[in-house]
C-alpha cells in the first residue's frame, strides 16, 4: 500500500479507536511543539460531543492548536517547498495530498456544518460560541490529505500522524485535550461524496449522524419518505434541492409521465414543461442542466418551478433571476 492509499484508508476508517496510541501521539505532538505534555485527556463520542466537551472543559488553559498543528505544518511545508522548488513541490503535492484533498475537505466541512446545525436546533444561544470552539479543532483522521504529503519525511509531524491513525477530531489546550472516537459508519458514492438512501451516511456511536444523498445534505427523516413518494408530494416540496433529490429517486421520466406533463417549449436555456392540474392552475417547470460537471463527470439536472403564465424556457429561467426574458444574457450558463 502506497502512502496515498494508506491515508485514504485512514480518512475513511470507522470504529476501533486505539485510545492509548492516540494519547501517545498527542504527547509526542506536544513535545515536538516544545510544550509540556497535557495533564489529562477527555474522550468524546463524536465531533458534536467533542465540541461540547471543549466548550465546557474546566482548567484546560488556552488553545495550543497553532503550536501543535498550524505552525509545524506551515514550517514543514516551507522546508519541503524550498528543498524541491516551486515546480517540485507542485508535483509532489499533486501525487500525494491533492489526491485526497477534495474528499477530506468535504468531510470536515460537512461535519462542521452538522455540528453547527445541531447547536442551532438544540442550543441556539450557544451557536456563536461553538463556532469559535470549532476553530480550535484538529481534524485527526480527516487531516489525511496533508499528512500524506509528509509521511516519512517529517519527524515534527509524527505525533499528529499518530493521532490521525488512531482517532478522530481533537482539541488541544495547554493542560487538557479532548479527543473524539472515529465514526462507526461511513457511506460514500463513487465520487467520494456522502451518500446513502436508507440511513445515515456518516454515523457515530453516540448518535451524531449526517444524512446525504449523492453529496446533498438531507434531514434525518427525509429518506424514510422516499419509498412512498407521489408526484403530488414532489410538487408540494418547497425546497428546490430536496425536490431534486425526490425527482432523482422517483425518476424524471416516471414523474413526467405520471404527472401528465407536456413539453411546450425548448431553447438553449432548457425545456419548459407544463402539468395540467384539475381544479387548480397549471404547474410549469423548466428543466435545466448545469454545465459545470459533478466530481463523477455527470451534469446535474435541475427543475425550476416557474409561474404558470411562462411561455418559453428562457422566460422561465430569467424569472428565477428576477429578470425579463430579453434581459437574461448569462456570460456562462450554469
Give the strand order, joined by hyphens, for the main sheet: 9-10-11-12
Principal-axes shape call: elongated
Helix content bin:
40-55%
Instruction: State the domain count.
Output: 2
Number of strands: 12
Q: What's the alpha carbon Rg, rounded to whole Å?
A: 24 Å
The parts where pLDDT drops under 50 for at least 5 residues are: none
Structural class: alpha+beta
- Mean pLDDT across all amino acids: 90
Q: Hey, roughly how much beta strand do the residues contain? A: 5-15%
Count the DSSP helices: 13
The largest pleated sheet is described as: 4 strands, antiparallel
Distance between the termini: 40 Å
| SSE string | HHEHHHHHHEEEEEEEHHHHEEEEH
Could you give a short description of this structure?
The protein is an alpha+beta fold and 334 residues long. 45% of the residues lie in helices and 15% in strands.
Explain what this protein looks like in three dimensions.
By secondary structure, the chain is an alpha+beta fold. The two termini are 40 Å apart. The chain is elongated. It has 13 helices and twelve strands. α3 (47-56) crosses α6, α5 runs antiparallel to α6 (127-134) and α5 runs antiparallel to α7. A four-stranded antiparallel sheet has the order 9-10-11-12. The protein has helices at 3-12, 19-32, 47-56, 65-95, 98-122, 127-134, 144-150, 158-166, 222-225, 231-236, 240-250, 252-259, 313-320, and strands at residues 40-44, 170-172, 176-180, 185-186, 202-203, 209-210, 212-213, 216-217, 261-267, 270-275, 283-289, 301-306.
